Amino acid sequence: GVCGCCGALRPRYKRLVDNIFPEDPEDGLVKTNMEKLTFYALSAPEKLDRIGAYLSERLIRDVGRHRYGYVCIAMEALDQLLMACHCQSINLFVESFLKMVAKLLESEKPNLQILGTNSFVKFANIEEDTPSYHRSYDFFVSRFSEMCHSSHDDLEIKIRMSGIKGLQGVVRKTVNDELQANIWDPQHMDKIVPSLLFNLQHVEEAESRSPSPLQAPEKEKESPAELAERCLRELLGRAAFGNIKNAIKPVLHLDNHSLWEPKVFAIRCFKIIMYSIQPQHSHLVIQQLLGHLDANSRSAATVRAGIVEVLSEAAVIAATGSVGSFASTLPTYQRSEVILFIMSKVPRPSLHQAVDTGRTGENRNRLTQIMLLKSLLQVSTGFQCNNMMSALPSNFLDRLLSTALMEDAEIRLFVLEILISFIDRHGNRHKFSTISTLSDISVLKLKVDKCSRQDTVFMKKHSQQLYRHIYLSCKEETNVQKHYEALYGLLALISIELANEEVVVDLIRLVLAVQDVAQVNEENLPVYNRCALYALGAAYLNLISQLTTVPAFCQHIHEVIETRKKEAPYMLPEDVFVERPRLSQNLDGVVIELLFRQSKISEVLGGSGYNSDRLCLPYIPQLTDEDRLSKRRSIGETISLQVEVESRNSPEKEERVPAEEITYETLKKAIVDSVAVEEQERERRRQVVEKFQKAPFEEIAAHCGARASLLQSKLNQIFEITIRPPPSPSGTITAAYGQPQNHSIPVYEMKFPDLCVY
Fold first, then answer.
1. I need a surface site. Which of 114, 559, 666, 726 has the fewest CB within 10 A?
2. Number of H helices, E strands in the chain
3. How is the chain split into domains, by residue range?
4. What's the family (predicted)?
5. What is the residue-wise DSSP string for 382-431?
6. Closest to 25 measured CA to CA, from 64, 60, 76
């Protein structure tokens, strides 16, 4: 009582707290006295909890008396004390602070709610030095979530944004603190996530309203939808493996608000989710979507269609992003395993199975192929491996190059880019992004190393396979500029990374063969493709001539390029590979001065030690069964021109049927028959599988037993013939009924001629 009556006898901390409040609240916080209070709190940290308790007492009294100016001063003082003090006694002070924030949030005044939220956000950004074992944020999660759904007439947007900021503060304060109540529990996620989705959903509605002049500047800075999206991304980005399900489960309840049917909002939500979570967690989202689809098996078709649409979008993101961002951080040996795994899953046509087609006639496997090849390209980008035999093993290279022969132009381009990513080990790839005939390639500043022994072994084993696919890719009618740029980059990188003298010779032969393709035009290529092949050959020979540094070779290439510049610029990359190509309508009868001559190149390189005999040989690719898949082989290469039918009679009565004359109808029938045989074989296999799946066990056992008996009888006949003693050399004897019968005698009683004894 004495202390209450005499101000001089009041505790010092109370006097210092009272002194920060001015007589008129509009004057604001007394700064000099606030500095004294801060210095006292830092000098005597044991008094900090009492300072907080007294400030809380004054604030509660001022709120009850509607003295909101002093309320703002008290919160400002609390904020400054929080920022300045990080001692061990801060926990008790924080309890008083949170009590005051809760008091403001409970108020019906929107301005007080916003004030309390702003103070909490400042507190959430402070890293505390000491942990807290008993602090709870349940009230704040509930209150901030309630504010996110505010429908206040005047300050609706401000209150919603304050609620979102408050939830963001709670997440930041608790997500990495293991001592706090788990924010990922369903009881919290079921409030936080729907509140954020509510503001995402009402973005159009909020933007359609005409805000008041006071709200316009705030809205121009950031809308509730943008802030909610940023908060949701931050929340999902912090989610660990065990917390993903609790964070995603509230999103699946879009069916409670009929939000699967328009599909637009659902797809947007799951795109945010897939791009925010860690890539290795993508499969968990896919699993939850699949489970939700099963749970809605009896729902309306529109709902299930919306879920399927979202699932397809999520699967595309998971396939294209997760394997590549995730695998790029792995060590080399593990990335190699990932690469082999992806390539093994890329569908490719089989020699004995037709390509599946959908209702529109498109390949059903195309989307899968593109997604997996995109993932493979991401993994291969930046892949560093000194040994090409390890980077491109035979089983991987065979599957990859067989995919390069497909008719789909996009898939072929992916394959070329993947090969470039593997071969480029010195970062030269971007230097060949533009096809040109530079007079001095030193400006490119290429990084060139001597071909290693491992690279030489790799090229001896796989070079012809690579050349063949490059040659066939050049002949594609559906090629565009990107394909020719990729082919030029691939040729250039092979020359830099993997080339010895033998490889250089073969690459020159290959490019000259490509020039012949454009000149002869047996493939009936369009004018652009022919000009592109001429230009591709000019660019590469210009590059390789300067890499070999043989003066006579460089001179020949330079002369042809200069002649083309004057007489046929449409045969050079500078006129072809531009936005508006300048082409010639007549490419027949190209004069020899415009062509790179194999005899001349062989002569000049032979004088410098290169294998001139090999240079003189034209390049001819070896055709394999893979050409049948890509429909590159002609009918004449797959069906013999003459068909001979042998009689089934005995050898004594064998007669030859004259060679059948081949006509168009015969060839057509052969093709149709082969397709029919394949269809019958597939049907037979299907019936066998179905029989073993559905037939009774007794029937299957009887069927197998009959086949076993037949096999045994055949084996007995073979054994009988094999072990039967040979006939007697003396001839035959006549048995009953006048039938001749061989007379068998033991081997040891036979008499052999003298010449057989030695």
1. 726
2. 35, 2
3. 1-132
4. Belongs to the EFR3 family.
5. T---S-HHHHS-HHHHHHHHHHTTSS-HHHHHHHHHHHHHHH--SS-GGG
6. 76
